[in-house]
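Deliverable D4.2, example record:
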Amino acid sequence: MGILEQLIAAASDGVDRRRREVPQSELEAALASRDRDRPFMEALSRPGISLICEYKRRSPSAGDIAPGVTLEDQVRAYEAGGASALSVLTDETHFNGRLEDLTAARDSCLLPILRKDFIVDRYQLIESAASGADAVLLIASVLDPRQLREFQEEARELDLDCLVEVHNEPELHSALEAGSEVIGINNRNLDTGVVDVATTYELITDVPTGKMVVSESGISSRAELVELERVGCDAALIGESLMRAEDPAATVREFAGLDETSEHRLP
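Output generated by the structure prediction step:
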């Protein structure tokens, strides 16, 4: 079984377990008190390249990441540094994430929150909305075009935005066929773990005008972000380099091209 297959199998097992613990009807009841005032897509449409800053505890390739860092401190630092949005990795088996991290993140900052996980079931969309997410990640290598379209429609009904992730041309075609509006180009091959930012440059030329593009993985400098903005990226999702930074707020500010005293971007 390949890495991606293992991730999908673990996600399916997790859904089955949580559905037994928390019936879908209970999640749907919780939606009545949901706070819906943090639009994810709107946060990515500001001038310049927007930063989606990620909190994750570990990864299959890197192992534990910054074990002494708390979620609360990290997301507050991201917000203070000028992040546009927050990504929270909730996969339990391989990333040591927790669904409760969404609620904790929402209580700790005012940023719109993307739930980053392996979404394989409608139940996960409902629990995302009930737990405090404003958007969800949908992965084109995990879902076929029909599922992508259906999940996006159901997400809209739940007032969730969708970031649809692709890694190659066939996956991009599937995402576009499914009517995806926000395309995430993952520079990491989920099967091999190899990261190459050139993936964004290769695929962005095939993304139609009017779609939003997010470059994901392997970004660690302001210079890379300037170049990504030049070729048409609206946002970048950055995780490990920020998790490992001694001063994450200052690093976000540097990446965003903000000076120390204002929200104005540096030339």
